[in-house]
Amino acid sequence: MTKHPVPARDPASPRRFDPFRVLPAAERRRHLAAYRSWLEARNGEIDLPQRRLSRRERYFAGIERQPVAWRGAVDREGFRQWLAGAGRPALDPRMLFLVVVGKVNESERYGIDLELERFEKRGEHLADLSQLYVFLEEGYHSRLLIELCRTCGVDLELRTPPWSTRWLISLIRYLPERVRWIPVLCGEVVGCAVFRLLMDHCHLFAGQPEVEARVRALLGEIWLDEALHVAFVRARLGPLAIRLSRLMLPLVALSLTKHVPALAELGLPRAALLARVRAGFEVPPQAEWIEPAPALAG
Fold first, then answer.
1. Beta strands in 253-296 (DSSP E)
2. Are 244 and 184 in contact (CB under 8 A)?
């Protein structure tokens, strides 16, 4: 594979990629083929009626065999009020972290349920299997976030997002195929930035190292998927769609920060979120096929 020339960098510095770089057609094809192989190896067999992936189920079986739980006081009522929109009582940073987890889970789970229903109606044999793998992975993210909250001492109940979010998700679902991936890329980009922020804040649980390690591991599974989802959607889009996605990103970021006000408390207001995106995303070490943009290489 021909590599883009990049400037010398610190070997310890991760490679980075621009989520809105327009890829040449040949690079797009390489990305999509490599990613399809990755999805099959990472996830195993698909069971669409049960919405299961064989290797993900084995992962959760391992988690269940070795449960970890926070020991100590937890402000469950304050957590509930923030999630329900019933108030914003003062919370310590650990609880605000969990509020962000809970609010992010609301929108993601709602949208994925609609997409999987769409696949079931069409029939698996008609589906783009890479796309189906991605949506099933997103469903597992909800389980990972529920497990994360349980580990930290709170029960995360699945809630329906507000009507504005439901309307936007439903609109995307019915857009023409060439158009619907434009807002999807924006959503994946914003999600990747948020999960990176959460990983950066795992130290909040350092007082109980086994909890910190479990939280970091669970988020690491999600962040790896999300970074590759960004690369996957980018590779599906041509130059015009990529440019439109870049223009739409501030609106999607605004919607998210309004829906999840606790993000600002953790240091990711809208301006900071957009700055993270402009800095590019780390290329997961498992994904050597993602070529970094020269300006972001290290």
1. 281-282
2. no
Question: Cβ contacts of residue 192 below 8 Å, gap of 6+?
Answer: 19, 223, 226, 227, 229, 230, 281
Residue 20 lies inside a defined structural domain of this protein: no
Q: Is residue 204 part of a domain?
A: yes
Total domains, the chain:
1
| Residue 232 maps to a domain | yes
Q: Give how far Cα 21 sits from Cα of 2, 85, 224, 243, Å.
A: 17, 37, 19, 9
What is the spatial distance between Cα 85 and Cα 231, in angstroms, rounded to a whole number? 34
State the pTM of this model: 0.89
CA dihedral 53, 195, 15, 271 (to 10 degrees): 150
The Cα 31–Cα 231 span in angstroms is: 8
End-to-end alpha carbon distance in the chain? 20
pLDDT band of 177, cuts 50, 70, 90: confident
Show the domain range for 66: 30-296
Domain assignment present for 182: yes
Q: How many CB atoms lie within 10 A of CB 132?
A: 19
| pLDDT for position 253 | 92
Task: Please give the Cα distance from 97 to 84 (Å, whole number).
Answer: 16
